[in-house]
Amino acid sequence: MTNSSAPIGVFDSGVGGLTVVSALLDQFPNELIIYVADQFHVPYGGRPLDEIQTFASGISLFLADQGCKAIIMACNISSATALPLVKDNVSPLPVLGVIQATAKQVASTSRSPRIGVLATAGTVQTQAYSNLIKSENDKASVLEVACPKFVPLVESVQTESVESLLACTEYLQPMANAGCETIILGCTHYPFLLPMLRKAASELFDIPPTFVDPAAHIGNALRDHLAATEKCGDRNHIKAYTTGDVETFR
Ligand code: DGL
Question: In angstroms, what is the span from residue 1 Cα to ligand 1's centroid?
Answer without folding.
Answer: 32
